[in-house]
């Protein structure tokens, strides 16, 4: 885990900070007790926007409905991420009931929850075998790929490729892994997903939006999320330096619920999305010292640098011998 996970300033000077000046203990106690109204409000707003796109806007402009539905789908995925970390209510079964039907149709909430919480074992970040969200391959797996697959993987390591191909590649890899080693928990998650997805598909069929258009919107929603995950983590000898800070405060930061401050989120996963900017401002120097200044000023800068240029190799650059001595997952 991160070396500085217990860090929080004793006194926060920023007037915008919503964190108790009594310190981390008092603040964590306060979020354990409160109802997080901003998250609840955003959740219901997101569903309203989705319904408006599917049932109203699609009646006079299908392309516009696709764009707005895609935004709502991406927003719901960000809210699912909030829920799996224990927000917005203290009753987790209620939280999960509100987001279990995945508007993207592709990723079961239960599988997202389980793999993402495994991803939060920070010592394993970017490990091709032990981090379920790693975009790297082990040396032997990379060497075993045919030339065409290596080419596709290299394209996928550019931002443009990740946006265009990433959802399809990620879904294929995700489902292949589940099919290769299906546990009872995995099967139950997929069955629950199918049951929860049927009403969404039925509603779309009853709406003015064609099903094919909704599938495009779902894909676009996943593509938007790939902008966030493109360089969230890097290969680094120290686990605490593997998570990025993107100092963006624009529409994408809101769409991602401030998860662009990813190093902050990994250090404080129970802090709600609307408190992350104040927390970052209150201890910016310390956060950047922890993550070895892995920082970008905005998503615009990321587009400029990496739209058609890969940031990382596909083969993990630091874990060759360690990985070659281990048995790949089934």
Question: Key features?
Answer:
two-stranded parallel ribbon; globular; disordered N terminus
One letter per element, helices H and strands E, the order comes to HHHHHHHHHHHEHHHHEHH
Main sheet attributes: strand count, strand direction, barrel closure: 2 strands, parallel
**Count of all domains:** 1
Radius of gyration: 20 Å
**How much beta, percentage-wise?**
under 5%
Mean pLDDT figure: 89
What count of helical segments does DSSP give? 17
Uncertain runs are: 1-22
| Shape, per Cα inertia axes | globular
Number of strands: 2
Q: State the end-to-end CA separation.
A: 26 Å
Give the fraction of residues assigned to helices: 55-70%
Structural class: mainly alpha
Spatial sequence of strands, sheet with the most strands? 1-2
Please render the helix and strand layout as text.
Blueprint: H1 24-33, H2 37-55, H3 62-84, H4 92-99, H5 109-119, H6 139-144, H7 147-156, H8 159-164, H9 166-180, H10 184-206, H11 211-229, E1 245-246, H12 251-255, H13 262-267, H14 276-282, H15 284-290, E2 295-296, H16 299-306, H17 320-324
Parallel strand pairs: 1-2
GO biological process, one term: lipid metabolic process
Pfam families: FA_desaturase
Keywords: Membrane, Transmembrane, Transmembrane helix
């Amino acid at each position: 885990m991160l070396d500085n996970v217990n860090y929080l300033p004793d006194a926060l000077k920023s007037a915008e900070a919503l964190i108790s000046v009594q310190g981390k203990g008092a603040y964590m106690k306060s979020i354990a007790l409160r109802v997080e109204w901003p998250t609840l409000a955003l959740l219901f707003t997101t569903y309203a926007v989705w319904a408006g796109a599917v049932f109203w806007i699609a009646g006079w402009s299908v392309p516009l409905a696709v764009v707005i539905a895609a935004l709502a789908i991406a927003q719901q995925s960000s809210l699912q991420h909030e829920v799996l970390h224990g927000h917005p209510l203290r009753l987790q079964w209620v939280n999960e009931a509100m987001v279990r039907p995945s508007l993207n149709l592709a990723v079961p909430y239960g599988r997202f929850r389980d793999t993402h919480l495994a991803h939060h074992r920070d010592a394993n970040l970017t490990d091709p075998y032990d981090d379920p969200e790693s975009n790297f391959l082990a040396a032997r797996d990379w060497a075993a790929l045919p030339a065409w697959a290596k080419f596709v993987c290299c394209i996928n390591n550019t931002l443009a490729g990740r946006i265009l191909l990433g959802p399809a590649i990620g879904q294929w890899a995700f489902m292949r892994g589940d099919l290769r080693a299906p546990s009872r928990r995995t099967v139950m998650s997929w069955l629950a997903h199918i049951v929860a997805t049927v009403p969404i598909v039925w509603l779309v069929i009853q709406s003015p939006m064609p099903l094919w258009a909704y599938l495009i919107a779902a894909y676009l929603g996943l593509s938007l999320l790939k902008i966030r995950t493109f360089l969230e983590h890097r290969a680094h000898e120290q686990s605490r330096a593997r998570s990025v800070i993107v100092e963006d405060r624009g529409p994408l930061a809101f769409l991602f619920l401030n998860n662009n401050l990813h190093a902050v989120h990994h250090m404080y996963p129970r802090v709600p999305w609307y408190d992350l900017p104040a927390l970052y401002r209150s201890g910016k120097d310390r956060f950047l010292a922890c993550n070895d200044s892995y920082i970008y000023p905005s998503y615009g800068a990321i587009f400029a640098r990496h739209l058609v240029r890969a940031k990382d190799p596909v083969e993990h650059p630091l874990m060759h011998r360690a990985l070659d001595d281990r048995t790949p997952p089934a």
